[in-house]
Amino acid sequence: MSSRLRGLDAFDPDGSGEQPCETSSSLAQQALTRVYEQDQRLRKNGSRVSDQPPDLSSKGKPRLLLMGQRRSGKSSISSVVFHKLPPSETLFLESTARIQKDTLPSFMDFQVWDFPGQIDIFDNPTFDIDAMFGEIGALIWVIDAQDDYLEAVARLNVTILNLQRTYPNIKIEVFIHKVDGLSDDYKLDIQRDITIRIQDELCDHGFENAPVTFHLTSIYNHSIFEAFSKVIQKLIPRLGILEAMLTNLCRTCRFEKAYLFDVLSKIYIATDSEPADMASYEICSDYIDVIIDVTEVYGSWPRTQKYREALEGPPWNQKIEDQVASGCAESCMVLSDGNKPIILREVNKYLALVAIMKEDSYDKMPLVNMNVEVVVQGVKEFFEITKPK
Ligand SMILES: Nc1nc2c(ncn2[C@@H]2O[C@H](COP(=O)(O)OP(=O)(O)OP(=O)(O)O)[C@@H](O)[C@H]2O)c(=O)[nH]1
């Protein structure tokens, strides 16, 4: 995507002359550098801070393992989320015969491994379990909610018990999948039933606090992206700092909601502290699609001299550079219901900041743009500082 939003002025809603975002970003940067140095020292001394995500840096890229019964929807999930396959075309996907390893160019460079449903890794001595789970980011177990799930739950229980003994820190994410077409009550009943069956089994074996999380998903709506967002967020070290930056931005610029998106997959990797709702996520994620589509059609065409003259002539009578906030491209759209503009700003080639603004904020666009710019620089520094060395 080549769309960019860049601002030059600062939004000061109180008229106090302060620029809270700039201050908070630099404070955040100092705090981040400090904790990073602290971590480095602790690692040198052979100890680790207990609540940290696993060290994803040294040996390779974090891995997401997709496992579950045959036809539960693993390849469909991977194709829809990471390869933009339209959901209806997953009907034609063939059954996976061997492990599909997919390295995805993204802000985090993770890998997705899609396992064939019929493989039982613990029954098969040819699998090097240590190599497989040694560097894992998360194990995603897909259960088909439209099918009889008892066998899937039983296999999941065996897998968790096997892993808990050797790799107790592996995060297990259960996708109760294909919930489209099921009533809300039925979805919740299934989720409750599966949760109880798994937790009971784990308790019986003495694992009361195993890190197992449940998500209701479908490729036919945004729930699958939402679930992946939550999975990926657990792999980001110091996520709280990113969230604090976005929360500050929302407060300063009176945004309703702000998301930091991985543009290719449309997974959001951070959001502000207001509760995330599906509707705002859907609007922001669809907006990215609109921008990508428009950019693909018009993006690389420079303005002709004639068009430029028309834009710079009456009634504006100003150079284009003075009229827009960005030298490259800018993007802002006003939603017809409630007059809420959406703003999108590219952070780097993988990430974009998308925010829903409040009614009156459109008048203050140049000021908003500057605050957004400051946060974007902060996000860049965050990834620079926390990137595996
Ligand atoms: N209704 C519905 N169908 C889905 C969903 N996700 C996948 N499917 C369908 O489920 C079927 C099986 O999907 P696959 O992705 O091939 O399943 P798999 O788990 O990779 O299967 P194996 O490769 O055999 O292990 C396909 O027909 C998909 O269209 C979903 O969210 N809802």
Short description:
This is GTP-binding protein. The protein is an alpha/beta fold. Helices cover 41% and strands 17% of the residues.
The outline comes out as elongated
Arithmetic mean pLDDT:
78
> Helix content range of the residues, please?
40-55%
The CATH topology assignment of the largest domain is: Rossmann fold
| Element-by-element helix/strand order | HEHEEHEHEHEHHEEHHHEEEH
Write down the domain tally.
Answer: 2
Rg on CA atoms, Å: 23 Å
Could you explain how this protein is built, in words?
The chain is about 40% helix and about 15% strand. By secondary structure, the chain is of the alpha/beta class. It has two domains: about 20-35 and about 235-385, Beta-Lactamase, CATH 3.30.450.190; about 65-235, Rossmann fold. The longest helix has 25 residues, at about 20-45. It starts with 19 loop residues before the first helix and ends with a helix. Guanosine-5'-triphosphate binds near residues 96, 178 and 219. The site of guanosine-5'-triphosphate (GTP) has 21 residues, from helix 2. It is found in: Endomembrane system. This is GTP-binding protein. It holds the Pfam family Gtr1_RagA.
SSE topology:
Layout: H1 20-44, E1 63-68, H2 74-83, E2 100-103, E3 111-114, H3 129-134, E4 136-144, H4 150-166, E5 171-177, H5 184-204, E6 212-216, H6 223-233, H7 239-253, E7 255-262, E8 267-271, H8 278-298, H9 305-312, H10 320-323, E9 332-335, E10 340-346, E11 351-357, H11 365-386
Parallel strand pairs: 1-3, 1-4, 4-5, 5-6
Antiparallel strand pairs: 2-3, 7-8, 7-11, 9-10, 10-11
Helix pairs in contact: 1-7, 1-11, 4-5, 7-11
The chain binds guanosine-5'-triphosphate (GTP).
The site of guanosine-5'-triphosphate (GTP) has 21 residues, from helix 2.
Family: Belongs to the GTR/RAG GTP-binding protein family.
Function: GTPase involved in activation of the TORC1 signaling pathway, which promotes growth and represses autophagy in nutrient-rich conditions.
Subunit structure: Component of the GSE complex.
